[in-house]
Amino acid sequence: MPGIGLVGRRQAVTEASDAFEVEPSGRRDPIRWLVACGIVLVATIAVGTAMTISNFRERALASSERELQNTVLLLARHFDQQLDDLQVPLDDLIAQMRVVGVVSADDFRREMSTHEMHLLMKAKVSGASEIAGINVYDADGILINSSVVPVVPYVNIADRAYYKALKSTSDTNDCEIEMVRSRFSGGWRTVIARKVTGPNGEFLGVVSRAIAPAKYEEFFSKVVLGNGAAISLNHHDGTLIARYPHVEAMIGRNFKPAPGTRINLFDADHGTMRLVSPVDGEERILSAWSLRRFPLTVFATATEASALADWRAQTKTLVVAAGLSAIVIAGILGLIVQLLLRQHRASRRQLALDKQRLEQINVHFDAALSNMTQGLCMFDGDRRLVVWNERYAQLYQLPSELLAVGTPHDAIIGDRILRGILKGESSDSAAKAKISALGELPKDAASCRVDEFADGRFVLVTRQPMPHGGWLATHEDITERRRAEAEIVHLARHDGLTGLANRAEFNARLEEASKRLKRNGGALAVMMLDLDKFKDVNDTRGHLAGDRLLVEVGRRLKSEIRDIDVLARLGGDEFAIIQEGGADQQQGATALALRIIEAITRPFDLNGHEANVGISIGIALAPVHGIESEELMRSADLALYDAKANGRNDFRLFRPEMLEVAHTQKLAESELREAIAGEQFELFYQPVISAETRLLCGVEALVRWRHPVRGLIAPDQFIPLAESTGLIMPLGEWVLRRACADASLWPACVKVAVNISAVQFRRGDLFDTIFHTLLESGLAPGRLELEITETAVLDNQEAHLATIRRLKNLGISMALDDFGTGYSAVKYLTIFPFDKIKIDKSFTQGVLDRRDCQAVVASTLALAQGLGIAITAEGIETEEQFEYMRKAGIDLAQGYLFGRPVPLSQLDLSQAAAPESRQEKVA
């Protein structure tokens, strides 16, 4: 670059000559200004460093406070749930006492001191007995039974504060928590106690559970907060219940600050503060969070020393960095001042200094070129090499004889082609053609091209013309970028889980196959596949197991098809196949479907757990069933729907009548949707009477469709359609709102029963819907009864059990409908807390002349009496049937003998039973 260097030197000499014209009187002003700037800059660094250190310290403490606050919040929510769970057996036990008819203190002592009751309590805490057993005390505070030992020692808790509080309070649901010392072991225990009252509110006794501090501390030990940290649980009265690390002498002590203390976290819902610890005298950060339902507070503390450990390391780094910066700045300023003084003293040395500056620029320029990730070269107007960097030479493996100023561009390109670096022919003719093509590139505009190397690399070449001829070119290796782009294209067309083609790719391939059929003829089959019972695997084994199952299904499907076939996962558990060619396409598709069903029905091993699923297949043939891609997809979908609706784990070929069925189904769904929007429904009510008094004590709400053309339609003609389309949700909500609104105007002794669909249970928002309906209607929860069938709780039993418990806590009663017609109804009586069993009408109407019906009725009544559950007999049409069922022991009766379902306007409530005469049991 001799020309460029000469121009730079002349410009530098001119600048230096101009600088020498400065008068001597102004020489010291720039130096003073630089020194002042240096002092201000160093002072700014010092002040900024000090402020940064202070800010970092506060951030470290604030971060520790947030961590402690998050910890105590999680612990508080955890113990809220745990203590709620510990009360469930106490609630169940109190409910059991009411069921057996305990009305006095003597009844309570007699019923609760039996060995059977000991076994019942032991069963209720089975699996959790290592946490806390159940103790029962009579009205005098004497221990009469325990889930821990069959024979109880003499224990009297009449002097305990919690006993006195429970005995004196009028709240029957009150729960007391107290820290006490065991009279036997001498150790501390946290007692959770509930009172037991008779029908008239008289005090009968106390049930309690006691938890050792070690159980809390065991959980605390799993929470990692750092060195010197501590977690404790205190009663709101200040008593320490548990602490980790454990200090025995502190358990039971009262740590509540004296009245008038400025900050008292025992009286606040939550908070964080800094203080000097009364235990070890260290400065600590303390955070507290009170439990929502219990008078307990979780405290977590950490030492400020541990919270500031990282801050101290940062402070050292900042101080060192600031000191080095000040030294560097001072050094630079000193050098600049010294340079200016030398310039003032020796003006003749200016050209030498300017030369040195130009050399430094050349060094920097060379360093920049050498460290570029791109290859760079420059050719002059005569197409000869002027500038290059090391990366350019590496990319093309240029020999040393070509790396010289003045090397012709044609020689470099020819060498590249002849040595086979570029992909393509390596010959003299190929080199000449390439050189000729490059010579035709535009000389007045930038251009780009991508060269593919023989070893698989791709290089992007960008040429920029120079003003006086020649060009500057950059060469960038974009191999990884090309691979990433190819991967993105692949992911856009393939399923990320199974690696199969996705819906977009499948649609594109089917469109291509359809075009080939139009041009060349032939045949193909489109197969839509859907797994059966896949949801069961997800629900029982989790979504990770479901994903593994989908991967294995994809592998098995791929093993059954040819390489020319297309297999895709459309989403969820839905797959699709395009099968082209074959002399008999129907026979080929049928054979493939049978192979797939046999392959998928073999058990799957999911990390040691066996899973069994089936597969339903719908098949559409082209050109028999159409040739357009959308038409084939729709036909295969209809065939799949038919396979799933008629038993599953099978295949169906499309038939034209399937389209008519789908159209009819669509019209019926549209008509039902319009009926819901137009409120074409009304409720009929059927009486439920007491078997003992024959007085009305409740009604069941039954929905009817008042069709504008077809008239009154029974529910069995539209409820299945509503459930299959999801329209049961708005319809069910309407029934619930209408029934509660009507019942709110009836006598208080009349309950209303509403049927709940399995779809409403699965949606998960049933509790919220019922809760808001009760608020809107003003109906007392105790007057609402929900009737559910076994199918409603068959799946996801744990979630449904939680919903039922929440509804029962409101006071709503639950009835198991159509008892005896399901899979294993007895099992659900032991899992779910039902209040009532409804014997199906098929058993009621056959009880007079069929021994099997008599046996079912007798066993059902014996089971209900043993569990303390009321019995309703449905479908009673004759006095003989009623008399038989009454003598057998039913509580309630329902059927045409007592009244058919009628509109609200015809419902007779004059025979409603008074509250004191009702015979319905409450479980």
Strand order of the largest sheet: 23-24-26-27-28-29-30-31
Question: If you compute it from the alpha carbons, what radius of gyration comes out, rounded to the nearest whole angstrom?
Answer: 43 Å
Low-confidence regions: 1-27, 915-923
N-to-C CA distance: 101 Å
Helix segment tally: 29
Helix content range of the residues, please? 40-55%
| Percent of sequence in beta strands | 15-25%
Mind telling me the CATH class of the domain at 668-917?
A: Alpha Beta
Shape annotation: flat
Give a quick account of the main beta sheet: strands, pairing sense, barrel closure. 8 strands, mixed, barrel
CATH topological fold name of the domain at 668-917: TIM Barrel
* CATH-derived architecture of the domain at 668-917: Alpha-Beta Barrel
**What is the average of the pLDDT values?**
81
How many beta strands in the DSSP annotation? 32
- Structural class label: alpha+beta
**CATH-assigned homologous superfamily of the domain at 668-917:** EAL domain
Describe, in plain words, how this protein is organized in 3D:
The chain has 923 residues and is an alpha+beta fold. Among the domains are: 104-211, Beta-Lactamase, CATH 3.30.450; 377-483, Beta-Lactamase (2-Layer Sandwich); 494-654, Reverse transcriptase/Diguanylate cyclase domain (Alpha-Beta Plaits), CATH 3.30.70; 668-917, TIM Barrel. Helix content is 46%, strand content 21%. The protein is built from 29 helices and 32 strands. The strands form six sheets. An eight-stranded mixed β-barrel has the order 23-24-26-27-28-29-30-31. It has a five-stranded antiparallel β-sheet with strand order 2-1-5-4-3, with helices on both faces. A hairpin with a 2-residue loop joins strand 17 and strand 18. Helix 11 packs across helix 12. It starts with a helix and ends in a 20-residue tail after the last strand. Mean pLDDT is 81; it is low at 1-27 and 915-923.
